[in-house]
């Protein structure tokens, strides 16, 4: 077991290094210069541009820039200066990213919980009640949701549940932008919780809807396969009750593909958060990532990509280790 974990950590480290090299190479070859905005300003002297280029290390060969970045990046404990300074402002990259990560994690956790709480039970119910009206309706809804772009889902929810619902009822149920109201600090504890939920609901649902569609489809297929297996027929033949057969024997094995899917979906949720944070003006890493790409601010882009890569590797390791708990036949030799 320990040997397996060490081997997976080494593979994960290789993946992270490869991801950093690929991302750095792509950012270096996008055709833009981080100082283009300053160069286009006639009031800024060429000597000043040259001085800033030396300050940021942009006058060095790309391979030197990469190794300087990598050497500084691993010194994460040297807060806030280890990851250097953003090309587009006075803020340090580490300070800038860490100030946004809490908002993104809040959105991701809410969306993931919604997807798991709704998607998995829905898939189980569809498998048990195969070809029922609810199974057919949920299947149709899943295909529609999965084929709809996330920005359409987000804008549609904004119009339906925030704009029109407020207009019809005269009550403000949900907000369409931001993480909190401007008077948040003056509210009571209960009012703060309500305000947070009102801001979080629509962006979290926008991300969760696609995951609900995917999880329910996979859970349905996995559950149907297990329900028709020989060992469950034997369990039924021995007189075990329907609930016992489903909960104690079928569900654990049927969850294995879902665990894999959820671990891989972390990257998908972050990808959805990039678009959703932009639509809902959510002050998270995704919005920062979009702005940084537009400005060719590669230290910020590299930091966000590395955090996402680390989360994906970590979640895959946790998923692999959970297989042994779900299925005792799994060995790590």
Question: How are the secondary structure elements laid out?
Answer:
Blueprint lengths: L1 H27 L7 H4 L6 H11 L5 H12 L19 H36 L4 H14 L3 H20 L19 H39 L2 H8 L4 H13 L1 H24 L5 H10 L3 H29 L7
Helix pairs in contact: 1-13, 5-6, 5-8, 5-11, 5-13, 6-8, 7-8, 7-11, 8-10, 8-11, 11-12, 11-13, 12-13
Q: Helical stretch count?
A: 13
Described by the principal axes of the CA atoms, the overall outline is: globular
Beta-strand segment tally: 0
Structural class: mainly alpha
Q: Which stretches are poorly predicted, pLDDT < 50 over at least 5 residues?
A: none
Give the N-to-C terminal Cα separation: 7 Å
Biggest sheet, in brief? none
- Helix percent band: over 70%
Topology as H/E string? Answer: HHHHHHHHHHHHH
Gyration radius, to the nearest Å? 24 Å
Strand composition percent: under 5%
What is the typical, i.e. mean, pLDDT?
Answer: 85
What does it look like?
The protein is mostly helical and 333 residues long. The protein is 74% helix and 0% strand. It contains 13 helices and no strands. The protein has helices at 2-28, 36-39, 46-56, 62-73, 93-128, 133-146, 150-169, 189-227, 230-237, 242-254, 256-279, 285-294, 298-326. Helix 5 (93-128) packs across helix 8, helix 7 (150-169) packs across helix 11 and helix 11 packs across helix 12. It is globular, with a radius of gyration of 24 Å. The termini are close together. 28% of the residues are buried.
């Amino acid at each position: 077991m320990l040997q397996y974990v060490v081997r997976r950590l080494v593979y994960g480290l290789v993946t992270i290094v490869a991801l950093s090299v690929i991302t750095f190479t792509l950012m270096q070859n996008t055709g833009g210069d981080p100082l283009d905005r300053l160069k286009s300003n006639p009031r800024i002297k060429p000597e000043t541009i040259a001085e800033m280029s030396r300050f940021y290390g942009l006058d060095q060969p790309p391979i030197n820039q990469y190794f300087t970045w990598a050497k500084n990046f691993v010194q994460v404990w040297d807060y806030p200066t280890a990851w250097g300074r953003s090309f587009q402002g006075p803020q340090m990259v580490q300070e800038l990213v860490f100030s946004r990560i809490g908002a993104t994690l809040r959105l991701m956790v809410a969306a993931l919980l919604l997807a798991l709480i709704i998607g998995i039970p829905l898939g189980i119910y569809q498998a048990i009640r195969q070809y029922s009206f609810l199974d057919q309706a949920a299947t149709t809804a899943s295909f529609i949701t999965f084929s709809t772009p996330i920005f359409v889902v987000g804008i549609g929810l904004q119009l339906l549940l925030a704009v029109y619902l407020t207009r019809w009822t005269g009550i403000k149920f949900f907000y369409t932008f931001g993480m909190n109201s401007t008077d948040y600090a003056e509210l009571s504890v209960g009012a703060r919780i309500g305000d947070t939920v009102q801001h979080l609901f629509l962006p979290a649902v926008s991300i969760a809807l696609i995951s609900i569609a995917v999880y329910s489809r996979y859970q349905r297929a996995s559950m149907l396969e297990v329900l028709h297996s020989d060992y469950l027929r034997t369990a039924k033949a021995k007189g075990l009750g329907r609930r016992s057969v489903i909960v104690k024997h079928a569900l654990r094995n049927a969850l294995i593909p879902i665990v894999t899917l959820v671990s891989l979906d972390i990257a998908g949720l972050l990808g959805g958060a990039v678009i959703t944070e932009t639509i809902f003006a959510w002050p998270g890493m995704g919005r920062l990532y979009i702005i940084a790409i537009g400005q060719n601010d590669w230290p910020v882009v590299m930091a966000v990509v590395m955090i996402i890569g680390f989360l994906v590797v970590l979640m895959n390791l946790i998923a692999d280790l959970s297989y042994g708990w779900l299925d005792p036949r799994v060995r790590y030799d």
